[in-house]
Design goal:
Strand content: under 5%
Distance between the termini: 36 Å
Helix content: 55-70%
Shape: globular
Structural class: mainly alpha
Largest sheet: 2 strands, antiparallel
Number of helices: 11
Number of strands: 2
Length: 185
C-alpha cells in the first residue's frame, strides 16, 4: 500500500470514502496530506477542490463555496505560471462550476478537451471529456452532460453505467429521462 501522502493513494482513498457516503472521512484523508496540490499523471487537484466536493455532499454549502473559491485561486495562479496543461484547465472548470460560474466553467473544461482530445489520447483525453460532462451536470445542463457521457460509453474507457449510478455527482442527471436509455445501452 502506498504511503498515505502518495497522490494516487490519496485520490483512491478520498473517492472511496465519497462513493461509500463517508464524506467526513473523505475530508480526514485530505487532512493527512501535507501538500496543497495533489498532482498525478492524470490530474492536478488542490486539496481545496476535493474538500469542496465532500463539503457539498455534507450540505455545508458556505464552506464548500469558500473551498471552491480557494481552489480557483490556486488553479488560476498555476495556469499563469505553466505551459498549457489540460489537467489545470479541467480542474479550474470544475471549481468554476462549483461557484456557479457556468460560462467560465464550460470554457475551461472545453479548453482541456481541446488540449488533449479523446481522439489523441483515449485514456487521458477521456478524463477531460468526463470532467466536461461533470461541469455540464453541475451547471444544470443534463442534456449536454449526457451527450458527453454517451460518447465515453461508446469507447473503451473507465466509465460505466453502474459507476454513474453510484457517483453522487450524477444524482440530478440520473433524473433526466435520457439517462435510463443511456444506462440501458
Amino acid at each position: 500500500i502506498p504511503e498515505p501522502s502518495d497522490p494516487m493513494a490519496v485520490w483512491v482513498r478520498f473517492w472511496q470514502e465519497v462513493y461509500e457516503g463517508r464524506h467526513e472521512q473523505a475530508l480526514t484523508v485530505l487532512d493527512a496530506v501535507p501538500q496543497e496540490v495533489i498532482e498525478s499523471w492524470h490530474s492536478i487537484r488542490p486539496k481545496a477542490l476535493l474538500a469542496a466536493r465532500a463539503l457539498d455532499l455534507l450540505g455545508r454549502s458556505a464552506a464548500a463555496r469558500e473551498a471552491y473559491a480557494r481552489a480557483a485561486e490556486i488553479l488560476e495562479r498555476e495556469i499563469a505560471s505553466r505551459d498549457p496543461d489540460p489537467r489545470l484547465h479541467s480542474a479550474l472548470g470544475v471549481a468554476y462550476a462549483g461557484l456557479g460560474r457556468k460560462e467560465e466553467a464550460v470554457r475551461e473544461g472545453g479548453r482541456a478537451v481541446e488540449l488533449l482530445p479523446l481522439s489523441k489520447d483515449a485514456l487521458n483525453g477521456g478524463s477531460y471529456e468526463f470532467e466536461l460532462a461533470i461541469i455540464y451536470a453541475r451547471s444544470g445542463e443534463a442534456g449536454k452532460a449526457l451527450e458527453r457521457l454517451e460518447r465515453l460509453l461508446t469507447v473503451p474507457w473507465t466509465v460505466s453505467a453502474k459507476y454513474l449510478e453510484l457517483d453522487p455527482i450524477w444524482a440530478d442527471v440520473r433524473r433526466h429521462p435520457e439517462f435510463r436509455k443511456l444506462a440501458d445501452k
